[in-house]
């Protein structure tokens, strides 16, 4: 189950409320821009959702396309799936034409073709779209490189902007060395003008492109790097642009280089969208954030997902106090994210320096972090410089402040080691707090609070083993033992006396990962090696208990049970094995969990243990396993009970009788009640015509298909059957008039629809 991977954004205003729709893995999430809260998700695709666009024929509906080869039509207000169109090949983008309803334009995987698909009219919920024609081949896979022009009269003229730019190409570089490659495109809503963005940061406005010999273009320049996205406002008075600078630029159309700026929005701007009335704008960013901006160029809302950076250098951690997921966030920060609420909580500034968004610039990054068992202390390591000669790093200790409910810097150690710190862990004891760091200077150090003054930290012990570089360190569950690996040798130490108790050196290969067993398996020590071995030692006998040949990329123990999760990457996919150290046979196996390597994972404790799990998922009773892929997708395992609970939230809501009546209820509610009583008394068993009529009358008008599709079916339902039972013609007359009234209301009186939607 994939969460928090926003890639594309669309924006709409309806029913006096603002909504933002964005793709998130195989979901489409709906947010409110007033409260910035997640409302619900549109769940139905089985693979990555790659594009969404509003239905031009119905402003309450949205189309979505996916790599699973389907296009789905949703009622995004109620979260209802209306129809599924099966295309049959992976889809990467979707476009619609306001002039041609019932026609979609899709990016398909076949040489990245642009095809037009005519949607069949059918009462079935799932239908295959067979009428498909190619528009163009070998187009850019970036959706921002395709746009619609105005005044479309036929399918051949829809992508006139795309064909024009292909015909009137620019040289890859000009005399001054500028890079002219196209990066994005936008069409003016009222004029024959096309705006294009380029790799050198320039924006070109093309005109007279219909006449090949007379086309002209003007150039505007502010961005110092590639322009990622362009968007005209609905009235066409301004052009919005964004790029890596994280600055939204508003160009006044037809006024040369006159422009306004909105800086420091976060990560690189990837996509810009405007509301239909031009009152609000939305920008999506590379750090997985959506910013809501007023037309006066003031930020009025921020929707922050799990901050998505270039890489996660820290481990996935759980804050013992807030139970939030903690990992790298903004550059130089740690982010705290609530998995229960699916919401970003806050960022903790570790580096405390202004970050400069410039490629190739060497800046401080948080590379290590660890919490103590009570969540009172946080240790971080920040560094910059890839070479040892240029390396600069700091070890910082942060204390939790009860008053501010956040961590405050307590101690900064500028020379903790003479070389890079590669491993760090806190002791598990609640009585004394100890931090151990291992570095490439062939030493590990133990840090403790001062005996007289516990407001500062100092080094308590320095250990080494034959001048070998340590690779990992780990405390036992009761903190009575410390294991430190030096290349191929594991050393066991007593933290009380700092005596080296024994060494373990049977397996070949450098120790890559190290962890102790928990609870009844606390006497075991697990380790993985670079020779693709998973080994288990018995600490009571100091002998190798068992070993198996498997390439483990991540070994993650569950602190709340005896279970250990091992991720193995082979044959271009990752497998998961869950086992107990006392028994090498896996309790749970899942092949092909994902196609990338897994280097980060964590077990998250449950608020209430699960009791009704199947035997194959009992390892999820006390905690839930989350893991992060190389593509920055956060994945987790859930039981069937949890999936049912999540799906139930997306079902259509039933209105309670206590809800206040509306004009539509006064008009239709009493008649429906009388009809139900009449049907119960006269016809206990409903026949086919009554089912058809009831479904039409009880379905919201904005969800119904076009009247032309339902007309013949609806009229046929009134044919008198051969049962010999005389039907009441007055009842059919009432049904027809109510149905026609709903259709007329939908077309001519959209304001009345508000009352019906509130009632429904």
UniProtKB/TrEMBL annotation:
* Higher taxonomy: Eukaryota, Metazoa, Chordata, Craniata, Vertebrata
Q: Which domain of life is it from?
A: Eukaryota
Q: Where is the WD repeat-containing protein 75 second beta-propeller domain?
A: 316-632
- Extract one GO molecular function annotation from the record: RNA binding
What InterPro entries does the record tag this protein with?
A: Beta-prop_WDR75_2nd, Quinoprotein_ADH-like_sf, WD40/YVTN_repeat-like_dom_sf, WD40_repeat_dom_sf, WD40_rpt, WDR75
What biological process terms from GO does the record include? positive regulation of rRNA processing; positive regulation of transcription by RNA polymerase I; rRNA processing
For the keyword S-adenosyl-L-methionine, the answer is no
The organism encoding this protein is: Cyprinus carpio
Any single Pfam family the record assigns to this protein: Beta-prop_WDR75_1st
Which PROSITE patterns does this entry report, sorted A to Z? WD_REPEATS_2 (PS50082), WD_REPEATS_REGION (PS50294)
Please state what the protein is called: WD repeat domain 75
A single Gene Ontology CC annotation of this entry is: small-subunit processome
Where does this polypeptide localize? Nucleus, Nucleolus
Q: Which UniProt keywords apply?
A: Nucleus, Repeat, Ribosome biogenesis, rRNA processing, Transcription, WD repeat
């Amino acid at each position: 189950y994939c969460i928090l991977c926003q890639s594309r954004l669309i924006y709409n205003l309806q029913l006096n409320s603002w909504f933002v729709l964005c793709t998130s893995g195989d979901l489409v999430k709906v947010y409110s821009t007033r409260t910035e809260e997640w409302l619900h998700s549109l769940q139905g695709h089985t693979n990555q959702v790659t594009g969404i666009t509003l239905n031009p024929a119905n402003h309450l509906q949205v189309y979505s396309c996916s790599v699973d080869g389907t296009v789905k039509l949703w009622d995004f207000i109620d979260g209802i799936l209306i129809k599924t169109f099966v295309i049959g090949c992976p889809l990467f983008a979707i476009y619609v034409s306001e002039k041609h309803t019932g026609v979609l334009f899709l990016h398909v995987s076949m040489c990245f073709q642009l095809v037009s698909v005519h949607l069949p009219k059918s009462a079935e919920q799932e239908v295959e779209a067979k009428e498909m024609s190619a528009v163009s081949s070998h187009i850019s896979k970036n959706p921002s490189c395709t746009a619609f022009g105005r005044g479309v009269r036929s399918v051949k003229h829809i992508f006139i902007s795309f064909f024009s730019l292909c015909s009137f190409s620019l040289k890859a570089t000009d005399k001054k060395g500028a890079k002219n490659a196209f990066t994005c495109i936008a069409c003016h809503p009222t004029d024959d003008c096309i705006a294009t963005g380029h790799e050198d940061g320039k924006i070109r406005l093309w005109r007279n492109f219909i006449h090949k010999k007379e086309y002209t273009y003007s150039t505007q320049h502010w961005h110092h790097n590639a322009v990622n996205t362009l968007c005209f406002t609905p009235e066409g008075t301004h052009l919005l642009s964004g790029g890596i600078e994280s600055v939204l630029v508003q160009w006044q159309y037809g006024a040369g280089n006159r422009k306004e700026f909105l800086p420091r929005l976060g990560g690189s701007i990837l996509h810009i969208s405007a509301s239909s009335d031009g009152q609000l704008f939305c920008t999506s960013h590379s750090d997985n954030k959506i910013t809501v901006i007023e037309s006066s160029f003031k930020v009025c809302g921020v929707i922050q997902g799990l901050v998505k950076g270039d890489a996660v250098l820290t481990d996935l951690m759980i804050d013992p106090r807030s139970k939030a997921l903690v990992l790298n966030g903004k550059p130089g920060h740690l982010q705290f994210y609530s998995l229960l609420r699916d919401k970003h909580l806050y960022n903790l500034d570790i580096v405390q320096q202004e970050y400069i968004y410039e490629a190739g610039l060497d800046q401080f990054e948080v590379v290590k972090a660890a919490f103590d068992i009570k969540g009172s202390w946080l240790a971080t390591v920040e560094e910059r410089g890839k070479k040892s000669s240029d390396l600069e790093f700091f070890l910082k200790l942060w204390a939790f402040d009860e008053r501010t409910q956040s961590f405050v810097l307590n101690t900064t150690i500028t020379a903790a080691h003479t070389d890079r710190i590669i491993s760090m862990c806190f002791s598990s004891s609640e009585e004394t707090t100890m931090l151990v760091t291992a570095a490439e200077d062939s030493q590990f150090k133990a840090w403790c609070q001062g005996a007289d003054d516990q407001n500062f930290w100092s080094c308590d012990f320095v250990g080494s083993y034959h001048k070998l570089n340590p690779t990992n360190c780990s405390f036992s569950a009761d903190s009575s033992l410390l294991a430190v690996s030096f290349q191929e040798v594991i050393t066991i130490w007593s933290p009380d006396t700092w005596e080296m108790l024994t060494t373990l050196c049977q397996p070949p290969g450098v120790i890559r990962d190290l962890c102790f067993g928990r609870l009844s398996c606390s006497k075991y020590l697990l380790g993985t090696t670079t020779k693709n071995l998973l080994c288990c030692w018995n600490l009571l006998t100091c002998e190798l208990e068992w070993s198996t040949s498997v390439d483990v990329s991540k070994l993650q123990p569950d602190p709340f049970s005896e279970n250990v999760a091992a991720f193995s990457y082979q044959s271009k996919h990752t497998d998961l094995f869950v086992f107990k150290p006392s028994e090498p046979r896996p309790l749970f196996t899942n092949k092909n969990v994902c196609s990338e390597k897994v280097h980060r994972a964590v077990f998250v404790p449950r608020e209430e243990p699960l009791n009704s799990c199947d035997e194959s998922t009992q390892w999820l009773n006390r905690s839930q396993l989350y893991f992060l892929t190389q593509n920055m997708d956060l994945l987790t395992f859930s039981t069937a009970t949890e999936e049912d609970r999540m799906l139930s939230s997306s079902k259509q809501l039933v209105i309670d009788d206590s809800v206040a009546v509306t004009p539509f209820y006064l008009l239709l509610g009493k008649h429906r009640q009388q009809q139900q009583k009449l049907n119960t008394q006269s016809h206990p068993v409903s026949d086919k015509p009554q089912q058809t009529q009831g479904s039409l009358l009880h379905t919201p008008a904005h969800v119904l298909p076009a009247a032309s599709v339902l007309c013949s079916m609806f009229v046929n339902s009134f044919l008198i059957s051969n049962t010999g039972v005389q039907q009441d013609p007055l009842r059919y007359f009432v049904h027809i008039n109510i149905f026609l009234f709903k259709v007329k209301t939908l077309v001519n009186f959209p304001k009345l629809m508000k009352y019906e939607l509130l009632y429904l």
